[in-house]
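Inputs:
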Amino acid sequence: MSPDTPSVATGDAAEAEAPTRIAPATLEELVERAEIVICCGSGGVGKTTSAAVLALRAAQQGRRAVVVTIDPARRLADALGLDGIGNTATRIEGPWAGELSAVMLDTKSTFDSVVARYAGDDEQAERILSNRFYRNISGALSGTQEYMAMEKLYELQADDAFDVVVVDTPPSRHALDFLDAPRNLTRFLDHRLYRVLTAPTRGVMKAVNAAAVSFVRSVSKIVGAEVFDDAIAFFQAFEGMEEGFRERADAVLQLLDDPRTAFVLVASPRRDTVAEAHYFADRLGEADIPVAALIVNKVHPSFSDQLPEALRERSRTLAGGDLGGLYRNLADFALIAAREDEHLDGLAEQVAPAPVVRVPYLRSDVHDLDGLTEIADHLFGAPPS
Ligand SMILES: Nc1ncnc2c1ncn2[C@@H]1O[C@H](COP(=O)(O)OP(=O)(O)O)[C@@H](O)[C@H]1O
Ligand SMILES: [Mg+2]
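Outputs:
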């Protein structure tokens, strides 16, 4: 027997154990194959818009898509012509072969349903939900929004009604926080203060150290000093639920690491957002997660094949007349486009071989289905007929 034979078999087995992550050659293929698409990037670059367009395309392809958005400005709800999008999936009717639904993440009600799920019984759930401390922190605790976005993602991907879940990431200053969200929650549960507060005997309170005291003080400052007792009651009511939370956090992390999950990086060609995109790609790289595609949104068209300097020279020659002014404009546009190209070069290289797709700066905001369709045409070409 050739010595190669067993090694081939081993190779197959290894492949079956760890399926390789999808590495789509085009955005079209990504939308066809991915089961979870996560749009990330800094604020204002077009994440919410992109997430909606990717879900729309999946629906056009005949898939059952749901987009989860975290859009306090409700721009997407407006764009989709829907007032009624809420924390549960709402179907959007339209001329597509598949199905399109949307969810507007409501951090507070997602947190409430998480509590209800993990509570031992209705009585425990009620004790937590009606607790003043809980009502104050459930919306305000840092990382809650990121964690709840992941929670929603988990819930939707487990739902047989959908083939693909597209997630818009929170408009947090640190667009990456959501990657840490499940871990942060686990860390919170491991926190000494938490363990001290949930300890059955009050005597243990003597053990509260300086760090814990300062934590409580800063919490008290936000929610009012009198809630300290409420806080203790909350943590005590929480007892027994950590395990459920922890398991769920692990499951969410696994989901982010799943080969059928695709991260789409959205950037605009400005220096600062490109810098943040680099950082984001780095962070994903540290977690061994490749960027599946890069969308560069709001690109200025150059309008001309000529170099900016040549156009500038021409505008000088023609100075004084209308044509001179036009050439000056053209030179300005060409210069902006050239600068944008410079900013983007390294980024495309960093995410290679991920496909890079450019979307021009449209004349107006994307505020309706026509706007989304226009973006889709730039991302994918004309829809399948
Ligand atoms: N290609 C584009 N051309 C013009 N306006 C755009 C384009 N893409 C997005 N916008 C607009 O830019 C704003 C920010 O987009 P949004 O998708 O909400 O970004 P993010 O979710 O990253 O903060 C919105 O008003 C949107 O309509
Ligand atoms: Mg957004």
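Remarks. Residues 1-15, 200-209 have pLDDT under 50 and may be disordered. The chain has one domain: 27-304+337-380.
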